[in-house]
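Student: I would love a firmer grasp of how sequence relates to backbone shape in proteins. I am handing you a single protein, as its sequence and its fold in token form. I am told such tokens are a discrete way to write the fold. I hope you can help me see how the letters and the tokens relate. Take your time, and here it is.
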Amino acid sequence: MATKLIVICLSFLLASIICMVALPVGKAQSDPIELYVEPPTISNVALVPKTTFNVSVNVANIPASPGLAGVQFTLSWDPTLLKGVGMQEIMFHQVTPESDWSNIWTLTNDVENGSASYAYTFIDLSTATTDGYCPINGSYTVANITLEVIGTGQCPLNFTVSKLADPNSNAISHATVGGSFSNLSPPPAPTPAFLYVSPANTVNANLTSSKNFTIDINIINASGMSGLEFNLGYNASVLNANSVINGSFLPSSVTPVTQINNTAGFLVFNVSLSTPLNGNGTVAVIQLQVEASNVRNSTLHLYDVGLVNSTGQPLPFTTADGSFTNVAPLFADIGGYGIVDIRDAILAAKAFGSHRANYDYQGEPASPNWNPAADLNGDGVVDIFDIVILCRNFGLHY
């Protein structure tokens, strides 16, 4: 009985091994057969009307069996932008010996208004097969097409007919990949966004130890912004951060990722948006507390800033830091001489009419003669109002 069971078990094991050997365990995936345009993208502003360029129609990865015996295609384009000049057959003349070129059958080689039509095979398939140049396999340039530019714009180069036939007149399944043409000027580069601390300078002698104040982190010229991050650094012996929250520019439903480190003196703000934002506004509101018991100063430094679009690509930007001081200034002492005198008047005259970066909210840089110390009322421009302040304080000194 035991011997019979062993025989049965061995039989099942042998059958399993035979099945494992006989059944295919997988098949290597061959490269896809394609009929495609090369180059796939033609974008050149220099292709003005009356200039010409070439594209080729190529076939790729034709297998040796059953192989290729005939090709037919029609490539179409916008006839208001492009005009076909001519088409040169390549593949059949490349694979066929020159002595047998008379065996190439040209059914269609026609360039019309808005399209190029091609159809080639062999007159005598038996001869082509016997002589070894049919069926065709591998990858080839099928034909070159010359196009003349007659307008300005963009359009696709699409296959409206695409047929590959084997020697038994069966269709060979394949993919088609068209192309595109454009002679339009590329769109202008986006204006860099401007991320800055507001107010630029917090100067208040009343902000003594344990007093709180807020600053905004504002943005100008946001365009397609889907993500924003920044660090704000400060002197931890002078200031501590109490909180950082969304500004009015961000949707209330968005929760930022934040971190405050008052030991090292920095905070982190990071937000992702499902809907890209455009325009100007406040992205974050930060409350700071004065820690120093005596008068001190601190830079409010924006760093590790990043803006991205919906695909995660970086957006251009510039930044401007802020500052804090609770040192009482001598007002209108532009040069810091300890007295408001003719030297301050000269500095104000040199800066007159200048403005800070993005003062007019058009993304402009600061004026070459910009002097923030001459902007006595802090409105971003040195004008008659600042001169009046200077005159009112002229002669004051410590």
Observations:
- The longest strand covers residues 266-290.
- The chain has three domains: 34-182, 193-325, 342-393.
